[in-house]
Design brief:
Layout lengths: L3 H12 L4 H16 L8 H10 L14 H12 L4 H8 L4 H7 L3 H7 L6 H12 L10 H12 L4 H27 L4
């Protein structure tokens, strides 16, 4: 099992200096994950570890294909110190299969890192990632999708992906918010 402390050490070493804004986003995603602890029945550590590690594929020393979910997951797998569930969450975070398809990497991603059969854990990571700004602040999924479109452009690979993924992103976020409301959690 991946320890959250190890995840912070690894992600910090990879992102803190080389990509400080990405590190700020990562810390915001992890802070959000900590708020969801009551919903996760002993899976909170996996969520927080995945939240901390989800963007390590952007680190210059990790980039291989240029597709950060795949590059990050491959790096984690090679370390052999990270739980398979966490690696698969990193590989598939925020509907990465749709972006993989835009990049011609869907078969590789799906074969190497099958989707995790834990809808709540998957939705929770989508929620945390897609309601956190690039600087680590809180936002809505609608604003986050708009920010991504503005940053990458509508006709870019990322723009095409995020437009396709937006309905599923908003549904995931809605499911987590509804569950949090049922539990009386303030997100």
């Amino acid at each position: 099992m991946t320890t959250v402390g190890y995840a912070y050490e690894l992600a910090g070493a990879l992102l803190r200096e080389s990509l400080p804004r990405r590190w700020a986003h990562t810390q915001g995603v992890a802070a959000c994950a900590r708020k969801l602890v009551p919903l996760l029945d002993g899976r909170a550590g996996a969520l927080e570890a995945a939240a901390v590690l989800h963007d390590i594929g952007y680190a210059p020393s990790v980039v291989d294909t240029g597709f950060h979910p795949l590059d990050g997951a491959r790096h984690l797998r090679a370390l052999d110190a990270v739980d398979d569930r966490v690696v698969r969450l990193v590989a598939n975070h925020s509907f990465a299969l749709l972006e993989a398809e835009e990049r011609g990497l869907r078969a590789e991603l799906a074969y190497e890192f099958p989707l995790l059969d834990d809808p709540l854990l998957v939705d929770a990571l989508v929620y945390c990632d897609m309601t956190t700004t690039p600087d680590g602040g809180r936002t809505t999924s609608e604003e986050r999708v708009g920010e991504i479109l503005g940053r990458y452009g509508e006709d870019s690979v990322v723009g095409r992906f995020i437009r396709r993924a937006a309905p599923e992103i908003h549904e995931s976020v809605g499911r987590v918010r509804a569950m949090a409301d049922e539990w009386g959690l303030v997100l």
